[in-house]
Amino acid sequence: MASTSDIRNGLCIKFNHDIYKIIEFLHVKPGKGPAFVRTKLKSLTTGKVLDNTFSAGHKIDDVRVETHKFQFLYAEGDNYNFMHVETYEQISLSKDILDAPDLLKEGENVMVIWNTETDAPLSVDMPASVILEVTYAEPGVKGNTATNATKPAKVETGASVNVPLFINEGDKIKIDTASGQYMERVKE
């Protein structure tokens, strides 16, 4: 058992008969009344995100987890196949366990979170950003640059991302995996 003082990003807890991962938290000490912790929890089984407030000192049931490095091999329908980088053991995971499956490129390394009690994978942590090549982008029209004008572009994994007008086919761009948004153009 842990208490609210042990709350941190990435902590997995049992809550409402499900396993949740803490995405965000904020300790609040109001001028009047008791302190509390405001959290944003993501269900590792359904992917739903909910907000919850724990009073200070509240006991929480944490789940013991381990993280292992896996390499993405290929997608087969709704199943994604990964290989453990040390033991070369291969596993197949469902598409719903992944946060951003459309940004996953073959050969990409990810961290898989395992529940040590049931020895089952809980979730897949993508890298903070990925670098992908633009395979299709309409040409930008000169004069359309009033303020932060963007256009849709397709990247090599098939995902669609809004990019600035100066991005062309063949450019490599960095994409934030948490939001799926364009970050910058990469020169290689």
From TrEMBL:
Name this protein carries in UniProt: Elongation factor P
Gene from which this protein is expressed: efp
Pathway involvement of the protein, from the record: Protein biosynthesis; polypeptide chain elongation
Family designation: Belongs to the elongation factor P family.
Pfam family, one: EFP
InterPro entries registered for this protein in UniProt: Elong-fact-P_C, NA-bd_OB-fold, Rib_uL2_dom2, Transl_elong_fac_P/YeiP, Transl_elong_KOW-like, Transl_elong_P/YeiP_cen, Transl_elong_P/YeiP_CS, Transl_elongation_fac_P
Function of the protein: Involved in peptide bond synthesis. Stimulates efficient translation and peptide-bond synthesis on native or reconstituted 70S ribosomes in vitro. Probably functions indirectly by altering the affinity of the ribosome for aminoacyl-tRNA, thus increasing their reactivity as acceptors for peptidyl transferase.
Keyword Protein biosynthesis included in the entry's annotation: yes
Domain Elongation factor P C-terminal: 130-185
